[in-house]
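[step 3/7] fold_predict: job queued, chain A
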Amino acid sequence: MADSVGQPAGDPQARGLIKNPQDFWGGMALLLFALFSLWAGSDLPGMRGFAFGPGTAPRLFGWLLVGVSAIIIVSGLVTHGPPLQKWGMRAPTLFIASILFFGATVRPWGLVLSSFLSLMIAAAASNEVRWIEAIIWSAVLTAAAVGLFIYGLNLPLQLWPR
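[step 4/7] structure written:
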């Protein structure tokens, strides 16, 4: 016997309020991140008339993320989806390590080495990584970062170690 949306009657998702736990909890995580970013940027001056301040973009993106999070949370409440799956610590640890590595090495090692190596660390977060593809994509993304930040935006970043 199934309920009105095709879920088996004994299915715990069919009885509970949360029908799609992955979307619901993912949306909650995004919402917490958005609220943290709004709090962290709350002391930055915002927009006055047509003059944008340094807090305008972070505040705008924070509120946009709140909206997207709300849509994802509501989707988790009204649509059926898979249950939460187990996840390990390897992927989040290596992903955060790649961000911290980039922040720690971009000044002394330069944009090229730090971005390439941080992308390789992030690639190691997946069990399904193909190292040749990871090297190619890291090189392409490093070249795009150099093109954008050095030549497109004229930021005063050094390319190579001193």
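[step 5/7] annotate
The helical segments are 12-15, 21-40, 56-78, 90-109, 111-123, 131-152.
Residues 12-78 form one domain.
exit 0
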